[in-house]
């Protein structure tokens, strides 16, 4: 799959986030930043995936419902504008659930079980064989989301690449059943930091693993997270030469610091020896504090006006209901079900 090509001519873009927690720094570098730029020239829709959030939280639905507006506030706080991007709620778009039902018949259980992201998520969540059917099949519902909008470009973190492959397989099956092109294949758009690790470096940063620095994190939380960050375990004394690869402080500096030249000097110095982790962490903390301060402030202001956030979702969902109903009509047609 080509992951970089074609982001400069107008395309239909669909992205989304599970409503399983507030958004974090991984989302910021993995997709939010790009969405802010992409909304200037493309037809962009962002889906708050509440139904997908329920696939592993059905017995704790509040976790999902209580985060819907938080996520909308996160979007607005980083600069996503409802006048340029349609923001909608998955559960308000019945056509997506219906498309999922049709696609379910085109995918085998063994294909779903081969999905590497789903495999590792099942392991992380300790599901073993008691996986909710909805969780195992969420790549199919994600295919419904993407094709439901006829999206050609999907900005995602690299954990989502298997989902896009699965989507394109479904698209090809639908088109071959129809004997013509009804759905279009999509391409992923990866950022320069497609998978931000957690501060301990053990996993990707993720809402569900409780290892995230949220966009609304307080000054104290940011400071504590940076202080606890994994560096080079063999860099014991300041004068020791240190390793930059796998050192999470440098991974974050690469992802977030605006001055690349300064960071490469810092890396040289660290490799040579004579630069302590306290200093590199201080540089990182200052950069994250500066970056998150205005986002936290705007986020707080947006959350003070919940009616405005709900209104954005209502309007965006209305527009999206119409778009997705058209795709559903075309897919039902293939199965001969538009009888009346
Ligand atoms: P959950 O743990 O509930 O799955 P999550 O933190 O993985 O939450 P998602 O809502 O699943 O977040 O992902 C939304 C988008 O953000 C996807 O495109 C995903 O690839 C991207 N993303 C999530 N985490 C990261 C990360 N650590 N680095 C880069 N991109 C990420
Ligand atoms: Mg996820």
Automatic annotation (TrEMBL):
<dbReference type="GO" id="GO:0004830">
    <property type="term" value="F:tryptophan-tRNA ligase activity"/>
</dbReference>
<keyword id="KW-0547">Nucleotide-binding</keyword>
<dbReference type="InterPro" id="IPR002305">
    <property type="entry name" value="aa-tRNA-synth_Ic"/>
</dbReference>
<keyword id="KW-0436">Ligase</keyword>
<dbReference type="Pfam" id="PF00579">
    <property type="entry name" value="tRNA-synt_1b"/>
</dbReference>
<protein>
    <recommendedName>
        <fullName>Tryptophan--tRNA ligase</fullName>
        <ecNumber>6.1.1.2</ecNumber>
    </recommendedName>
</protein>
<dbReference type="GO" id="GO:0005829">
    <property type="term" value="C:cytosol"/>
</dbReference>
<comment type="similarity">
    <text>Belongs to the class-I aminoacyl-tRNA synthetase family.</text>
</comment>
<keyword id="KW-0067">ATP-binding</keyword>
<keyword id="KW-0030">Aminoacyl-tRNA synthetase</keyword>
<dbReference type="GO" id="GO:0005524">
    <property type="term" value="F:ATP binding"/>
</dbReference>
<dbReference type="InterPro" id="IPR014729">
    <property type="entry name" value="Rossmann-like_a/b/a_fold"/>
</dbReference>
<dbReference type="GO" id="GO:0006436">
    <property type="term" value="P:tryptophanyl-tRNA aminoacylation"/>
</dbReference>
<dbReference type="InterPro" id="IPR050203">
    <property type="entry name" value="Trp-tRNA_synthetase"/>
</dbReference>
<keyword id="KW-0648">Protein biosynthesis</keyword>
<dbReference type="InterPro" id="IPR002306">
    <property type="entry name" value="Trp-tRNA-ligase"/>
</dbReference>
């Amino acid at each position: 799959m080509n992951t970089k090509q074609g982001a400069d001519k107008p395309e239909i873009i669909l992205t989304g986030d599970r409503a399983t927690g507030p958004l974090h720094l991984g989302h910021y570098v993995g997709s939010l930043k790009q969405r802010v730029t992409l909304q200037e020239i493309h037809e962009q829709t962002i889906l708050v995936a509440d139904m997908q959030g329920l696939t592993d939280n059905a017995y704790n639905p509040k976790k999902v419902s209580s985060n819907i507006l938080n996520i909308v506030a996160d979007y607005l706080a980083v600069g996503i504008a409802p006048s340029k991007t349609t923001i909608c709620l998955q559960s308000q778009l019945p056509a997506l659930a219906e498309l999922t039902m049709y696609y379910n018949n085109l995918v085998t259980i063994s294909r779903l079980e081969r999905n590497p992201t789903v495999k590792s998520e099942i392991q992380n969540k300790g599901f073993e064989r008691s996986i909710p059917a909805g969780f195992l099949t969420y790549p199919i519902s994600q295919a419904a989301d993407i094709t439901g909008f006829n999206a050609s470009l999907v900005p995602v973190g690299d954990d989502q690449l298997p989902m896009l492959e699965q989507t394109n397989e479904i698209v090809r099956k639908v088109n071959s059943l129809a004997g013509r092109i009804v759905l279009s294949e999509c391409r992923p758009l990866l950022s320069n930091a497609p998978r931000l690790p957690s501060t301990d470096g053990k996993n990707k940063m993720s809402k569900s693993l409780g290892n995230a620095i949220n966009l609304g994190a307080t000054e104290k939380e940011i400071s504590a997270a940076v202080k606890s960050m994994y560096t080079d375990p063999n860099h014991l004394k300041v004068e020791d030469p240190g390793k930059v690869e796998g050192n999470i402080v440098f991974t974050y500096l690469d992802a977030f610091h605006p001055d690349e030249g300064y960071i490469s000097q810092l890396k040289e110095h660290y490799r040579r020896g004579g630069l302590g982790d306290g200093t590199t962490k201080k540089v990182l903390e200052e950069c994250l504090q500066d970056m998150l301060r205005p986002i936290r402030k705007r986020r707080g202001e947006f959350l003070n006006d919940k009616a405005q956030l709900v209104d954005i979702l209502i309007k965006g969902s209305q527009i999206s209901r119409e778009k997705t109903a058209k795709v559903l009509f075309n897919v039902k047609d293939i199965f001969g079900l538009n009888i009346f």
